[in-house]
Amino acid sequence: MTTPTTSATQQRANTAREQRVYWLGLIVGLVLVLIGVRFFLAPEGASFTFGVAHPPKGDELHYVIGIRDIWLGAMAMAFAWMGEWRALALWFVGAAACCLTDAVIVNQSTANIYALAFHLGSGVLCLVLARGAWILGNTQKLTP
Q1: pTM of the model
Q2: Which 8-state DSSP code applies to residue 110?
């Protein structure tokens, strides 16, 4: 049997833990955003700091993209599996931004119509799915 004091102590410990995870999550997220921005603003320096040649000498760029796609895909699957609909909705918004940015990059690089169509279509699909996941998340919050 837990006493009211123990319960209050546990509650304070949980609140402190939540605060640490909250702030560390924000800080780590901000650092990753800044790293990403640096790759846009100073690609050569960012590549050097990351540890790959600029321009890439082999397949290292493909491996970097591949591991990020695997990680991001696993995150989407985990959010869906756990029923974290609003997190999945935000994931889809970010994915849409990536897809549309990819389309701009492809247009400037090769202007391959099939690649452009794929990236643009994927971006639109992600926006539609984001809306659906957000609605689902908000609907479930309203039910008891």
Answers
A1: 0.78
A2: T
